[in-house]
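TA notes, week 10

Several of you asked for a full example with nothing omitted. So below is the full record: structure tokens for the whole chain, then the designed sequence directly under it. When grading your own attempts, check the secondary structure regions first.
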């Protein structure tokens, strides 16, 4: 009789997340250099895993119930904030610029701020002993405009917060949250990062390509909102501007002003934006398609110059 090993081959178990994931997030901690990156993948059955690309995509945490494991205890959060408020006087008052969201318009908010060192227990799922020593920065809006929801932030940070200037810096960093969320929206909805069913190094390479484009589109859309009449040279190279001008319909070339607004609209046209609908917003997917088309045309432009130079 032959050995059983000669008849059967043990096939390694396949990672169920490898080609079956439906949700992805990239977590980046820019306070480290190089930035610390983690990758969250979830499938349709709420099986989730967090892997570390720096360790060969080693799974550092997994769960079969994402909502339960990561949900917030609202009562505990409110009790914690109350303790900070009762035990610490207001240390300074400052103003921050709030970005526009679906629930509020952009405005300047006046905040009273408290900060102090705190000790918190780690989540039970981490099975760690002891506690974490961090700093809390608690900010609550005063003089709230009528019909506006007051801002209240409880921020925990590993950064040392011992002065008013450091606390104000933490608040300023937090105001970038909405810009970060917009970046992820561009990465997911515009660049459609979740549509690429790749794994391992292939996905890492694709993300490296997409994140550069997402950052560029984020900068362009931000400047389009804040300074649309600024020069297009702030966001485009000379070749990109030449290509956009060449692709502009003749009727629109008259009295062209090379502003950021012109650049955004020209890129959007390449992505299928209908110019006669000027009142309609330029969507991020249109800009994404237009940007890819612009890059393709620029490559052709450069090849033509090399051929006839």
């Amino acid at each position: 009789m032959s050995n059983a090993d000669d008849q059967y081959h043990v096939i390694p178990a396949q990672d169920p997340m490898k080609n079956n994931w439906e949700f992805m997030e990239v977590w980046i901690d820019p306070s480290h250099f190089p930035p610390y990156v983690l990758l969250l993948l979830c499938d349709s059955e709420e099986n989730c895993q967090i892997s570390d690309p720096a360790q060969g995509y080693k799974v550092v945490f997994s769960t079969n119930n994402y909502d339960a494991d990561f949900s917030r205890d609202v009562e505990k959060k409110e009790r914690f904030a109350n303790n900070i408020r009762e035990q610490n006087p207001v240390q300074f008052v400052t103003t921050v610029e709030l970005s526009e969201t679906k629930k509020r318009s952009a405005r300047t908010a006046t905040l009273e701020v408290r900060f102090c060192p705190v000790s918190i227990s780690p989540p039970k799922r981490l099975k760690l002993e002891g506690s974490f020593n961090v700093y809390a920065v608690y900010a609550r809006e005063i003089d709230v405009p009528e019909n506006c929801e007051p801002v209240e932030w409880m921020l925990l940070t590993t950064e040392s917060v011992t002065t008013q200037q450091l606390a104000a810096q933490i608040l300023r960093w937090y105001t970038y949250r909405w810009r970060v969320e917009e970046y992820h929206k561009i990465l997911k909805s515009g660049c459609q990062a979740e549509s690429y069913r790749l794994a391992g190094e292939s996905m890492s390479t694709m993300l490296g390509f997409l994140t550069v484009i997402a950052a560029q589109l984020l900068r362009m859309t931000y400047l389009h909102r804040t300074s649309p009449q600024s020069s297009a040279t702030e966001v485009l190279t000379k070749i990109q501007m030449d290509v956009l001008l060449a692709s502009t319909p003749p009727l629109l070339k008259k009295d062209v002003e090379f502003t950021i607004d012109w650049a955004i609209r020209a890129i959007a046209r390449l992505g299928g934006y209908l110019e006669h609908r000027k009142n309609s917003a330029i969507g991020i997917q249109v800009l994404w398609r237009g940007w890819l088309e612009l890059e393709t045309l620029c490559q052709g432009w450069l090849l033509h110059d090399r051929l006839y130079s």
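The first helix runs from residue 4 to 7. Use that as a sanity check on your answer.
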